[in-house]
Amino acid sequence: MKKRIAVIGFGAAGIGYVEELKNSEHQLVIFEKSKDVISSSLSGIRSDGKIFISKEMGGTLDIDVALQKRVVDFYLKKSDVSEDKIEHGVSFGAQNSDFYRRFYVNGFLPVSAEFFHIGTDFLKNVMQNIYEEFSSKENISFKFKTKVVDVINNEDNSVTVLYIDVETGETISETFDKAVIGVGRSGHKLIENIKTREPKTVLASTTVDLGVRFELPNHIVKEINEEMYEFKVKLKTSAGYEVRTFCNNPSGYVTIEKYNDDEFVTVNGHSKVNSKTDNTNFAVLVTHSFTHPFNDPVGYGTHISKLSNILAGGKKVILQTYKDFKNSKRTKKLGRVSPTLDSEHYILGDLNLVFPSKTKCAIVEFLEQLNNVIPGVTCPDNLLYGVEVKFYSNVLDNNYFKNISFIGDCSGWSRSITYATCHGVLEAQKELENS
Questions:
Q1: What fold does the segment set 4-81+118-204+395-434 form as a domain?
Q2: What average pLDDT does this structure show over 259-277?
Q3: Which residue of 76, 239, 317, 385 has the fewest C-beta atoms within 10 A of its own C-beta?
């Protein structure tokens, strides 16, 4: 049966969903709050363009490797980048490697993955090419500058989408046969509205990752950067917290990330194909898992992030040397490592005023242990920027509503471009099976 389907959010999950249904009889209307496709909500692709194939990371869905490869190939083909320009590598491709052994004997769990890096400077090609293909289809239309604020399931199983025209401020409602919500973690306000009205949609709500973006000279990590494209490891600390590395960027840049329409800013990292620095950066993230009655991981992470902005005097992050962070001392002067983040986006300060003490201790323990594998990691003038936060959305039940589905990172089932896109594909396949 032909349906009129609202696809809310033109991010990774939405792209996967629409790609799978682009040649179907269904009418797809894509809502996106950004002004155009280049500004859309595909933050991981937009800010770095690093995608991967792995069964050990990216979400809790069981995604077949063949589907992951198909998704990766889709993005690579849309990039217009020649094959020799695509950076490609692995994280612990062989368990008999010296680095695998060194990490393992020091208590770390190495994570295997295959990486492909398009580069920030080529990402607009990806988005533009996807948009041009989709918009050329008669059954696909776009509504940019539309902020969806609620999705209501009606008694007749139709769905009402309530949205605001960003330019005029007018509130508009439209009725659809189905709504597919793929707004990412930044769309938690919409998800909050739905789960407040229908709390049984939530299966779990307990986890958030808090940490720092760590920056150090390339020469310290030269050996491991040459052996693998990105090293990903986890460590169970003495306090019981799991700490992990994330998004390693050799010769990369530290950047800021805006959340909730510039309500607060956090720190992130990226790298470019045609522009390199003398530093490597990666995230050190501490997983915080709570128990009942806690049910707002996004709220907790938002609170910590806003606190760092307040202490930084505005929409800025805090920068601190490792020695000062470890000794709970405010940084007033930098040493040998020059920040790659523009000075207008940070102040020198003390992250100990932001993090709970157990979080700080877990970060220090992780880095001290990492120094046993990679000497020089804990040099006193290496840099920590904070806060970096990775939200785990509420895990939502896609069987609760008949004609509303949640896909990608906003659903709580994925935490990556690859898995979010695959999730969109899988939900679209269900629609095709039921048509």
A1: FAD/NAD(P)-binding domain (3.50.50)
A2: 86
A3: 239
